Amino acid sequence: MREQPAPAADARSEVADEADFSLIRYAQCWEDTDVLLEALDIRPGDACFSVGSGGDNTLSMLSRNPGHVLAVDLSPAQNFVIALKCAAFRALPYRETLELVGVADSTRRAELYRRTRGALAADGRAFWDARQAVIARGLSAAGKFERYFELFRRFVLPLIHRRRTCEVLFTPRSAAERRRFYDERWCNRRWRALFALFFSRTAMGWLGRDPRFFRYVEGPVAPRILARAEHGLVDLDPSRNPYLQWIVLGRFATRLPHVWREQSFEPIRRNLDRLELRVESVESALRGAAGRSIDRFNLSDIFEYISEDATEGVFDDIVRSARPGAHVAYWNMMVPRRRPERLARRLVTLGAESRRLHQAALAFFYGAFQVDEARDGR
Predict the structure, then answer these.
(1) How confident is the model over 10-43, as pLDDT tens digits?
(2) What percent of the chain lies above the pLDDT cut of 70?
(3) Three state DSSP letters for the chain
(4) Which of 76, 177, 219, 371 is most exposed, with the fewest beta carbons within 10 Å of its own?
(5) Dihedral sign of CA atoms 94, 95, 98, 103 in order
(6) pLDDT, tens digit, for every residue of 122-169?
(7) What pLDDT is stored for residue 9 in this prediction?
């Protein structure tokens, strides 16, 4: 794994001037990795581009034997999160890695970190040496977004349901039984009222994300998320949903995200040297990419935070840097962004595939998932 310094000031993203990127915002990736990997369809030797975030999706991309994965993030803290996860893969066996990152219970994380820190660069050691309380608690709970869900789990959910009701939510059921459980036991007046307060634009902005991340969001937020939550609890199977389990229970009860499954461990470890981390904006990295050099793009939900003009600029650079046949995957939560129509011949939206994967995504709170394919277009 290679780590690069921050880019020059003229490479700053629009969103860099809007929010504080010095803190850990995401200790996990809150996007369905299985859906992402299916959409990207990474082939051995592919050159991949990824938004770093909590690192889970980027690391999972390594399991497909790409030739190179460039992961960029504006936040040095997010790159330190990824670097610690990479160090754990290098230094520890599978079960101990789960302990260190907080996926499995542990009373010895300080010891596991001591065994891991030698696999970190000097700046990474300094960052994590100063955050021993975070290490002791478990990295997976360390982000602002994870703490937001913890507030919901500890202080809001108990006002709505007993602990036993929360536990039995994850009992395997048929679709008809899930509908009955939701209507008769889960979706009461307290659920609707307190959900609307806690997942409002104001609460989510200040407690979970950042108020400035809602700059381009139009209309009320909570009703849309409530509708998506109903989809997650009824149309999808909670007993198979690690993201919902973490939100409600604070742990992965019956299923792990892709990155933490045992079958993923060795393929990821084997390919860590193919990962390059940069503190850099997506705009800068794509602007500097060579023409026809990238096969797969994981763009997370970056278009949520930037203007339509900035979005068009990113897509121009994608079209220029993508090899024919490249796949581009990205999520919309509340801001509907698509590739510009003027690029329709060069970047074809796979509409049916996008809709199918969005409906199947266990990270249920996104409003859309888009998969585009680069074409020669000449």
Answers:
(1) 345 655 555 556 789 999 999 999 999 999 999 9
(2) 90
(3) CEEECCCCHHHCCHHHHCCCCCCCCCCCCCCCHHHHHHHHCCCCCCEEEEECCCCHHHHHHHCCCCCEEEEEECCHHHHHHHHHHHHHHHHCCHHHHHHHHCCCCCCCHHHHHHHHHHHCCHHHHHHHHCCHHHHHHCHHHCCHHHHHHHHHHHHHHHHCCCHHHHHHCCCCCCHHHHHHHHHHHHCCHHHHHHHHHHCCHHHHHHHHCCHHHHCCCCCCCHHHHHHHHHHHHHHCCHHHCHHHHHHHHCCCCCCCCHHHCHHHHHHHHHCHHHEEEEECCHHHHHHCCCCCCEEEEECCCHHHHCCHHHHHHHHHHHHHHEEEEEEEEEEECCCCCCCCHHHCCCEEECHHHHHHHHHHCCCCCCCEEEEEEECCCC
(4) 219
(5) positive
(6) 999 999 999 999 999 999 999 999 999 999 999 999 999 999 999 999
(7) 37
Backbone angles phi, psi at 45, to 5 degrees: 90, -5
Cβ atoms within 10 A of the Cβ of 367, count?
Answer: 17
* CATH 3.40.50.150 location in the chain: 2-139+258-374
Half-sphere exposure of 42 (CA within 13 A, CB side): 30
Residue whose pair of structure tokens reads 């995401």 in the numeric block: 26
- pLDDT value at position 207? 63
Assign 318 a pLDDT band (cuts: 50, 70, 90).
Answer: very high
pLDDT digits (tens, 9 = 90+) for 37-57: 999 999 999 999 999 999 999
Contact between 98 and 92 under an 8 Å Cβ cutoff? The reply is no
pLDDT-based confidence at 334, cuts 50/70/90? Answer: confident
Which residue has 């051995």 as its token pair?
44
Structural contact between residues 247 and 153, judged by C-beta atoms closer than 8 angstroms: yes
Q: What's the CATH fold of domain 2-139+258-374?
A: Rossmann fold (3.40.50)
pLDDT in tens, 207-254: 656 556 546 556 677 889 999 999 999 999 999 999 999 999 999 999
Which bin fits 250, alpha (ψ -120 to 50), beta or left (φ > 0)? left
